[in-house]
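Problem: given the chain below (137 residues), write out its structure.
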Amino acid sequence: MDYLTPEQRRKNMKQIRSKNTVPELLVMNELKHRKIYFSKHVDKIIGKPDIVFRRKKIVVFIDSDFWHCNPQKVIMPTTNIEYWEKKFKRNRERDIYVTETLQKQGWHVLRFWESSIKKDTKQVVNAICNAIGKYNE
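Solution.
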């Protein structure tokens, strides 16, 4: 049951960011701290990756546990269930399509869950560093 009015829910949903989320900023700040340079939110690449290493042809997506439906973390809304099931299914299908398309174009695709980043940002950044051939801390 939703305890918010439709207007409160609308206001709440408008507050959700698609760029520069807390997990994205944690990873980006750690990369900057290590003096590793990257592009962010590149519109010209399918899927608009959160982090791009153009020369290495590596893209990084930081997936929200809720919107990308992390099977370990997502809590399915209890109202408007049909809408949410379709929404999550479309999101998962789009993620698969984007990953496969980028791989066919020669990109190496890394995806990390929001919860993994919040749990251990340095481990996630180390995985990115390994992929791009940089040192680890």
